[in-house]
Amino acid sequence: MELILWRHAEAEDGTPDLERKLTGKGRKQAARMADWLNPRLPPDIRILSSPAVRTLQTAQALGRDYEVAPGLAPGASAEEVLAIAGWPAATSPMLIVGHQPTLGQVAMQLLAGQAGDLTLKKGGLWWFQGRERMGQLQVVLRAVAVPDWL
């Protein structure tokens, strides 16, 4: 299974939290990442987004169909995100558009097999692949990208 964690791009400050929109810089970050990501995505990718406006705007930059998953809202746990993604058993690759610190906690769980925090920069992504070798799940980090590099 492939699992891509994409943190929403830069958003306005303010409340209510779920209604915060991307800034002009954030829209540019999302567009840059979408331009890099689109030609690399598997054809059967499933895209899930948090219901927050800033994540929806980030996902929309891809110009592809996506689903809103209320369980990905700010405050979700790493375990909830992995369950929603169907990790590691899902048959389709999955792109999750979500929030910190949750996505960093998911990355830590995948990389180290334990709870902890890592930071995904705004608009950045981590691309993982799970595979079975000799009866064991192996996690491969396929790519890390941030808008500033693109």
| Number of continuous helical runs | 4
The CATH C-level name is Alpha Beta
Adjacency order of strands in the biggest sheet = 3-2-4-1-5-6
Our estimate of the beta-strand percent is: 15-25%
Report the helical percentage.
25-40%
User: Overall pLDDT, averaged?
Assistant: 96
- Whole-number tally of structural domains: 1
Please identify the structural class as seen in this structure. alpha/beta
Give the SSE order as H and E letters. Answer: EHEHEHEHEE
Could you tell me the CATH topology label: Rossmann fold
- The CATH level-2 architecture is identified as 3-Layer(aba) Sandwich
Structural shape:
globular
Distance between the termini: 26 Å
Question: Can you say what the CATH homologous superfamily is?
Answer: Phosphoglycerate mutase-like
Largest sheet: 6 strands, mixed
Fold and architecture overview:
It is a single chain. With 150 residues, the protein is α/β, with parallel strands linked by helices. It has one domain (2-149): Rossmann fold, CATH 3.40.50.1240. Helices cover 27% and strands 24% of the residues. It contains 4 helices and 6 strands; from the N terminus they run E-H-E-H-E-H-E-H-E-E. It has a 6-stranded mixed beta sheet. Strand 5 (125-133) and strand 6 (136-145) form a beta hairpin. The two termini are 26 Å apart.
Task: Pick out its properties.
single chain, 150 residues, alpha/beta, Rossmann fold, six-stranded mixed sheet, 4 helices, globular
What topology does this entry show?
Blueprint: E1 2-7, H1 24-37, E2 46-49, H2 53-60, E3 67-68, H3 78-85, E4 94-98, H4 102-112, E5 125-133, E6 136-145
Parallel strand pairs: 1-4, 2-3, 2-4
Antiparallel strand pairs: 1-5, 5-6
Helix pairs in contact: 3-4
